[in-house]
Specification:
The chain is an alpha+beta fold and 112 residues long. It has helices spanning 19-28, 77-82; strands at 7-8, 15-16, 45-51, 61-67, 72-75, 93-94.
């Protein structure tokens, strides 16, 4: 039996053999407070269907997150960090860590 050195994510406790893999994961980990936007849990956050070409029935569609108060499409911080989406392609802004318009009094049932 061999003893191994392992690295653990400080946020979700996932284990890694490589230190570099653990550091990369921690940067993107959803439990990392740096990756938690104010939008999740806000009553104004909803889902919106976006079409590449609304006039083409074969057009690609994608669900985006949308702020009803600011009237903008939003992208999660981790999606931006991973490079899945570029700002302006399907989202107008990256979700902010803090928002003055945040209101949790009536959470949209999509997230319940």
């Amino acid at each position: 039996m061999k003893e191994l050195t392992a690295y653990r994510c400080d946020f979700c406790k996932k284990l890694y053999i490589r230190k570099s893999s653990c550091k990369k994961h921690e940067n993107l980990c959803f439990l990392n407070p740096e990756n938690k936007p104010a939008c999740f849990g806000c009553k104004y956050l909803t889902k919106k269907l976006f079409y590449d070409d609304p006039n083409d029935e074969n057009s690609r569609s994608i669900h985006t997150l949308y702020c009803k108060k600011k009237e903008v499409s939003l992208m999660p911080i981790t999606s931006f960090k991973k490079g899945f989406l570029s700002k302006g392609e399907y989202a107008d802004e990256v979700m902010p860590k803090e928002c003055k318009m945040f209101d949790e009094s009536e959470i949209d049932d999509y997230y319940l």
